[in-house]
């Protein structure tokens, strides 16, 4: 049976599927194996949306075990041209508080050993990641968050650590001293792989905690992350519901042409 087509993809938590009208699940095979779960396809305000929980349906996949290539390739197979990637993140700066949203514009990769490219040869391909997040999607996310009354930071750098462990105090102080705002375990290589397939990508960082380096604050715990994320889950859903119909049909950004001049 032929797969349906979708315009917009979402990686996130399982609760999002309730927002999709006429949702149906599809099993998708990729050259990189099976994605984290079946893909759920439905509609929001007339836009066809494909949803995939990056950690699996029961959150059984820790960050270092996610097959990011299979997940992103599955979206490409469905015809997705834009991906929204909400995720739980820690704050590295005192002005970025739990419950805030950060629409990141940069990442720093501190992971190791992850399969992070579709281009293993024989053609050598170098794709720019100078500006890894789609500017068009970022602007829509910022405007819609403001309209909803969500405290939103318009820019931010996310440092992506390997996981599943949290940072030491020394690591956290180091990251904060660089001026980086956000820490997370899944943004890389997810966002970069989307760029390799000329898919626009926007990150929405939901701040659940202050990382271990903040003076006078208890180190992050998994229970605290889950508690704050649950409290703010409605804001995430509201933003996605507002953002998706507001995305323009056209893609004037460079994401759509990322492969031009990239191969040797």
How much beta, percentage-wise?
A: 15-25%
Low-confidence parts, pLDDT < 50 over ≥5 residues? none
Tell me the major beta sheet: 11 strands, mixed
According to CATH, what is the topology? Rossmann fold
Q: Please give the domain count.
A: 1
Specify Rg, calculated over alpha carbons: 18 Å
Characterise this structure.
By secondary structure, the protein is of the alpha/beta class. The protein is built from five helices and eleven strands; from the N terminus they run ββββαβββαββαβαβα. Strands 1, 2, 3, 4, 5, 6, 7, 8, 9, 10 and 11 form an eleven-stranded mixed beta sheet that branches. It is globular.
């Amino acid at each position: 049976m032929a797969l349906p087509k979708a315009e917009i993809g979402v990686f996130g938590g399982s609760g999002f599927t309730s927002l999709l009208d006429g949702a149906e699940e599809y099993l998708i095979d990729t050259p990189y194996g099976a994605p984290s779960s079946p893909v759920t396809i439905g509609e929001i305000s007339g836009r066809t949306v494909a949803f995939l929980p990056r950690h699996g349906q029961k959150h059984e996949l820790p960050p270092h075990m996610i097959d990011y290539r299979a997940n992103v390739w599955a979206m490409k197979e469905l015809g997705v041209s834009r991906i929204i990637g909400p995720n739980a993140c820690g704050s590295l700066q005192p002005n970025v508080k739990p419950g805030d949203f950060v629409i990141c514009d940069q990442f720093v990769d501190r992971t190791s050993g992850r399969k992070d490219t579709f281009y293993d040869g024989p053609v050598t391909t170098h794709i720019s990641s100078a500006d890894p997040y789609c500017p068009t999607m970022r602007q829509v996310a910022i405007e819609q968050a403001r309209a909803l009354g969500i405290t939103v930071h318009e820019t931010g750098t996310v440092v992506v650590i390997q996981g599943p462990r949290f940072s030491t105090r020394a690591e956290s102080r180091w990251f904060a001293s660089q001026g980086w705002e956000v820490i997370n375990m899944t943004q890389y290589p997810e966002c970069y792989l989307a760029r390799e397939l000329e898919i626009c990508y926007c990150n929405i960082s939901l701040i659940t905690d202050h990382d271990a380096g903040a003076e006078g604050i208890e180190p992050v715990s998994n229970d605290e992350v889950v508690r704050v994320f649950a409290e703010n889950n409605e804001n995430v859903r509201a933003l996605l519901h507002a953002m998706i119909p507001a995305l323009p049909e056209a893609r004037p950004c460079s994401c759509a042409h990322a492969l031009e001049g990239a191969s040797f």
